[in-house]
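Sequence and structure are no longer studied apart. To make this concrete, we show below a single chain and its fold as tokens.
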Amino acid sequence: MVSRALLLGTGRSPKRALGAVAAAFAAASLLVALPWEPMRTAGRYPIWAALVAVGLAGAGYAGRHRGGLVAGWGATFLATIWIYVIPPLAAVVRGDTLDAGGYAVPRPSIVALSPRAELLTGLRIGPVVALAMALTLGSAAFALGVALRRRSEGTGGP
């Protein structure tokens, strides 16, 4: 029973952690879909960093409020996979090309791909990177949340 609570959480905390990340996911997607050029070029890395920070905060929240490790992993996974899928998908939907002024490669890379090729590449490698981030950084953020909860409860050790 304890392992189930550790993995799945208790109460509404898992929904709150994932809900915050889903709201940030939607907001970031709207910002990328806007035809405002600075948001699509120079703003892409701050949006990505903020989204990953929200995902890690969601994992920490899940640890602090008994939200469950799966919710922490899910929050980090959603935040990480966004960068590989949503910006190229928005560019494909808009009909941008590689030479268009508003489209830039959404991830740090030295190879410039068209939006369609970037989307296909993102669908192939995005889940792998997101899973690695969720298992490493998501677990660490969850453990930090658990440590903060135990410390505040007075059961954290010496």
